[in-house]
């Protein structure tokens, strides 16, 4: 009977240890990441622009992995890897595919059709991903963990799109 009681007690202690798993700042980050992805998708899916709706579906594929968490009082630093579709690659391809239409002074209707066609085809492909390592800085404000450097996370979600927008540096 003592052995059975000891095993039950040991199992209970192990379950309690596992249940305490994630730091509060990590839980807050994970919740915030999911909410951000939902907000981006919702905003991009509004309206009549089919290409934007397709882009939203591509962005929804972003995932993350929390590699390390260091909480120190009201400050926290998370080492996070964000895996997202490599938008730089695909937008560069898209711009190249538009060149003949631009050279022929395409109209708005031709541009819209080419955009929808490209992103429709893209959504059916096996896509390439880009991993971005981000240091996420959080601070506990009024009892709640808040991300301080949200821009760095957005850059990761958009799969290097910032590099595409900036273009080559001279």
TrEMBL record:
Residues 26-151 form the DUF5105 domain. It comes from the Bacteria. Keywords: Signal. InterPro entries: DUF5105 (IPR031343). Residues 1-21 form the signal peptide. This is DUF5105 domain-containing protein. It comes from Fusobacterium animalis 7_1. The lineage of its organism: Bacteria, Fusobacteriati, Fusobacteriota, Fusobacteriia, Fusobacteriales.
